[in-house]
Amino acid sequence: MSSVHEPIYIDFLNGLDVAELNLDNDEILAAVEAGLALQGQGEAVIEPRTHLIPGAGINGHFNVLRGVLGGEIGRAGVKVVGDFVDNYRQGLPSELAILNLLDPATGVPKAILDASAITDMRTGALTAIGARHLARPGSKVLGHIGARGTAYWNVRLLDHLFDFDEIRVHSRRVESREAFAERLRRDLGKPVVVTEDWKSTVRGADIVVEASRLERPEPLLRTEWIEPGAFVVPYGTMSAVELSLTDIMDKLVVDDWGQCKGGQFGSLRAHVEAGRLSAQTLHAELGQIVAGLRPGREHPGETILFWHRGLSLSDIALGHALLDKARHLGIGQRLRWA
């Protein structure tokens, strides 16, 4: 005997819809920070991401992220995002993503979204929110390594919070760093310095973000370049930092220890394997700090590191913020599912 139910509809937002919604800086930060607070309060379920590697000869892999945000209305989601380093050769972004939102009580699909821009925005928001709680309030010099999609939102949202006097950017390919700097100059309305090497980018910076695209681990960011009191955010897929970097830190913070402590990728993977970053040396997860359960920066002299691997919870929170705005503005499509 077949069951009878009301028709099921899903909301669909493609990349053009997401662009038209044009979430502003504060909308992005508010959505992601609300998700972090729920995580910190224990009102979320998050499982470590899994990696799907297509096979030999392909320079990339898929990340699969899953989670549930609690609170008054439960929200579940699964995101699949590719990480293919050589996509630029075909004029494609290295990271293309799709987000499925579901009802956690019934499993009913609720929405499908192009999550490529969501991935970039939520990554930048996590960097910026980390800095809000962990960087010196008067930070005025940013050193940023990397020019991939997430890099733009790192710089844009950090500058929104700190209004830097100096922004330095560097990446491996000259054409990518020049184009990145020009986009930032246009959108931020201020000078951006393109540097020739890592050292001149990092030395003397109040906030250092390492978002490189290395093919294999290589210690290009030297510990000796980090100034006392700086805030450092390394999150490249392949490690670009020295093992000694954690030795100079007063606080080590991550987005989710469950996914940081395992897996085969990540900027501090070697530090976890060597025991330099462990449950004992970890200060807190960022959500605990956002929720007020653990302290953030406590004095100007603290040198602090924040490693984020990317939260499904942030994707889910930002996805729902986009859906809410889309429904209000009548943007997107509603499709019959079943």
UniProtKB/TrEMBL annotation:
Superkingdom assignment: Bacteria
Alphabetical list of Pfam families matching this protein: OCD_Mu_crystall
GO cellular component: cytoplasm
Protein name, per record: Ornithine cyclodeaminase family protein
Upper classification of the organism: Bacteria, Pseudomonadati, Pseudomonadota, Gammaproteobacteria, Pseudomonadales
